[in-house]
Each structure stands twice: as C-alpha cells, then as structure tokens.
Amino acid sequence: MIRQKELEHPFYANPQKWIAENCAALRACFGKPSIHTCVDEAVQPRDGKFATYSVGAGDLHPNQEGLAKNLKEMGVEEVDPHVDCGGNKIFAQKNNLSGDPDAEGLKWAEGFVKQLGPNASVHQITESELQRPPAFHPALAAVFYGHRAGFNRNLGNLPLVFKMTDALADEQYALEQLLQIGTIAWEHGHGDQMDKFHFVALGNGRDVPAKRLEERAWLAAHELNKRVQKKVFNVVAGNVEC
Q: How far is Cα 200 from Cα 164, in angstroms, rounded to an integer?
C-alpha cells in the first residue's frame, strides 16, 4: 500500500522528464540552513525550515572537525538525530558502544553541537515525528545536491525521498553515503519487489554541475545493481540554479 501510494506521484511516470520540467520550481527547496539532520526520508525540517543532511546526522562522518566548520559557516545552529536510525546502529558498532544506539547517537550530537557555537542546540526526532512506519523505508528515490545550502523537499512538491548534502563530504564519503542509502532502501524497504530506485543528482549549474554528481551516482548505482543482481538502481540529473 505504501509503495503504491508513493508511485502515484507524477515523478515516477518519467523521473528524468519530471526533473527537467520542474528544475525552476525546485529552487524553492533550497535556502539558508538552520538544521543538520539525517538522510532518512522520514526526517523533515520543522516549520518550513531548511536542513543539511548526512548519514546518522553526521555521527559517521570521517572528518568531524571539517563537518562542524562547514555547518558553522553555513549558519546551522541545530543538530537533529532521530530514533530508529540505522546510522546510529553502525556508529555504536564501530565504536564498541554497548548502550542503546539512538541514545549513543544523541550523546554524540550533544557533544558535536558544541562546535557550532554557544547557542546551538540538539533536538532528537521521536517516532511520532517520523514520516514512515518504524523500521521500514518506503522511499523509492534519493536526492543529493551540490548546493552549499539547506534543502526542504516539501517546498518543491517532491515525493518522499532520502536527502544528502554533497557539499559536506569529499567524493569518497559522498559515494559511501549513496551506497549506504541504496542498501537501506533495499534491505529495509521493498527489497525484491522494488522495480526502480532513483538517485536524483541536482547540480547548481555553476561550480558543481549535475554531470559531475551524476557520474558519482552511477558508480553507486552500478555497484548496488551488482550486489542485488538486478537492474534496480537508476540515476536522473538536473541543474537547479539558485
């Protein structure tokens, strides 16, 4: 039922055509960020705000100091981890932490946010705030963008999507995050019943053209298709100049 509801969005009739026709409208999705949070499709900035996105809200980022510097420069003043987060589970495993993974993710966020300034805060997103059922990922697409900006998918009439801010990662970690998103979508989503999953690469048309992001997304798509032994993962791209 959830899958059918998602597929009713006009994006899925022809994703590349929809992106091409809606690039101008998608400008409304971008703005000055105040929140940094997870790539999870269920996470949505509150009150029409704009957010930046990393797996686990950043707890797995290999350059914590660099991430904090970028977020501070962009004006981010809040970090929002969430419950039922796969990134938190990986974080706890990698660091041999025995506590509840979401509690460990919250503890990380409370330490990390101090680097953003004295007024920065943490808000843990609860189960009631998530836009999906527990432990299930219904999204069939992921937006990752090259803009040094925040993003709010609701303001551009996009379907439910994972989100990732490419500007906050080097090429290797950006690719790693795309692979993690695809793996989550397959293993904790529709799995074998999934016909297509689309990586949507949005360039800014200037220093980060869509073509550059598209090439990276295809690396992830080809690798994921090999893993699942099925041509499921696809890439569409467009430039949103704003």
A: 10
Question: What are the domain boundaries of the chain?
Answer: 2-236
Question: Token match 């929002």: residue?
Answer: 80
Residue 38 phi/psi, 5° resolution? Answer: -85, 160
Is residue 229 classed exposed, middle or buried when 0-12, 13-18 and 19+ CB atoms within 10 A define those classes?
exposed
Task: Give one DSSP letter per residue of 103-128, joined into a string.
Answer: HHHHHHHHHHGGGG-TT-EE-PBPGG
pLDDT at residue 7 in the model? 78
What is the DSSP-derived secondary structure letter of residue 9?
S
Answer whether 0.85 is exceeded by the pTM. Answer: yes
**The pairing of beta strand 51-53 with beta strand 30-31:** unpaired
Pairing of strands 162-165, 141-145: parallel
Q: Identify whether the C-beta of residue 71 lies closer than 8 Å to the C-beta of residue 116.
A: yes
Rounded average pLDDT per 10-residue block, the chain, 242 residues? 71 95 94 97 91 97 97 97 94 93 96 96 93 88 97 92 96 96 94 94 92 96 97 97 82
User: How do beta strands 141-145 and 197-203 pair?
Assistant: parallel
d(C-alpha 98, C-alpha 184), whole Å: 23
Amino acid at 11: F
Q: Would you say 51 and 150 are in contact if contact means Cβ atoms under 8 Å apart?
A: yes
